């Protein structure tokens, strides 16, 4: 991690630093964008309705937000119409950068790092959107904006856009997979994923043992988790210039190396001067879990019933040990081994 002395002096030497007024305009625009109500999402209708209603359904996680199985993966029901429509409509720009992940695998952190790397000559640390916006506001999830019928907002974003998705690789449109825009994917040890996932979407309505069973069976939004990871891993082997495959644990162990790999891959490498002046370390510290979690915007702000602290819990490796029995951990490890058998992949 960066030298603590850097934290009190976070500042970038920007070639075109954005004025504070301009940052405020970005923030206000984000706040004024329409957000969905539950009724809007549940009431979505489309030409895909008949297909979706014929799919296997599961309400164990939440009766209010059932999931349905489509092309061997489970999806939140009310997002299926817009995902299918998005596949037909969304056209990436060559300069787009896509941040992809399974749920609770380091998404918030990777979004923050990628956005900060790309825009390091535009924003100073002392006048940065992250001081008043969550990284999910700065790096919008494509399918969520289509779900909110707010897809026009994506077109207003200046290039280069940093966009996010939880979609499986096979669910991305051909316009994305065949484009020049790079995809950065991050995976995380499944035992920690299920613990974090339960704290996020299941804790108030389902015991951990029940969530664990559903996860093992693959019946979870965007799951099975192993198949999600395997699609991106295999695709990264076939097309390493298109997909950068990252492991959360390796990024946590050596974030400096991870950030430099990330910057090189997306086409924003650090200059020798930037490395000498400690910019890489500053970015790592600025985007660190503790730094972001302690910001007022992430402690007190949010949209509707979803508060920004919802995205911040512990961010540690091995937290599963406080939730699982030895038998549970052994069972999950066995499933993981079977799923990745012959793939060459290990966590």
From TrEMBL:
Protein origin, superkingdom: Eukaryota
Protein's recorded name: Sulfotransferase
Record InterPro entries: P-loop_NTPase, Sulfotransferase_dom
EC number annotated for this UniProt entry: 2.8.2.-
UniProt record similarity statement: Belongs to the sulfotransferase 1 family.
Domain Sulfotransferase span(s) in chain numbering: 94-344
Keywords per UniProt: Transferase
GO molecular function: sulfotransferase activity
Keyword Transferase: yes
């Amino acid at each position: 991690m960066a030298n603590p002395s850097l934290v009190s002096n976070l500042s970038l030497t920007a070639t075109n630093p954005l004025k504070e007024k301009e940052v405020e305009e970005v923030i206000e625009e984000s706040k004024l964008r329409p957000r969905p109500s539950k009724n809007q999402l549940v009431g979505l209708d489309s030409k895909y309705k008949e297909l979706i209603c014929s799919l296997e359904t599961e309400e164990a996680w939440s009766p209010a937000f059932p999931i349905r199985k489509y092309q061997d993966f489970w999806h939140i029901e009310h997002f299926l119409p817009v995902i299918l429509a998005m596949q037909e409509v969304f056209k990436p720009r060559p300069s787009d950068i896509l941040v992809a992940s399974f749920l609770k695998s380091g998404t918030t952190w990777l979004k923050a790092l990628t956005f900060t790397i790309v825009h390091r000559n535009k924003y100073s640390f002392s006048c940065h959107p992250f001081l008043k916006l969550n990284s999910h506001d700065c790096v919008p999830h494509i399918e969520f904006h289509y779900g909110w019928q707010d897809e026009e907002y994506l077109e207003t974003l200046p290039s280069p856009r940093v966009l996010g998705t939880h979609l499986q690789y096979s669910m991305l449109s051909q316009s994305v997979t065949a484009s020049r825009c790079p995809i950065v994917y991050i995976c995380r040890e499944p035992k920690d994923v299920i613990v974090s996932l339960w704290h996020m979407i299941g804790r108030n309505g389902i015991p951990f043992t029940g969530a664990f069973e559903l996860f093992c069976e693959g019946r979870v939004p965007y799951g099975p988790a192993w198949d999600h990871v395997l699609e991106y891993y295999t695709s990264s082997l076939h097309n390493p210039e298109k997909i950068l495959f990252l492991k959360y644990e390796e990024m946590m162990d050596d974030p400096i190396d991870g950030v430099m790999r990330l910057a090189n891959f997306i086409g924003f490498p650090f200059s020798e001067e930037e490395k000498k002046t400690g910019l890489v370390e500053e970015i790592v510290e600025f985007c660190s879990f503790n730094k972001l979690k302690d910001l007022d915007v992430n402690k007190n702000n949010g949209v509707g019933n979803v508060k920004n602290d919802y995205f911040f819990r512990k961010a540690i490796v091995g937290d599963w040990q406080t939730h699982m029995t030895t038998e549970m951990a052994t069972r999950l490890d066995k499933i993981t081994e079977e799923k990745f058998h012959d793939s060459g992949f290990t966590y």
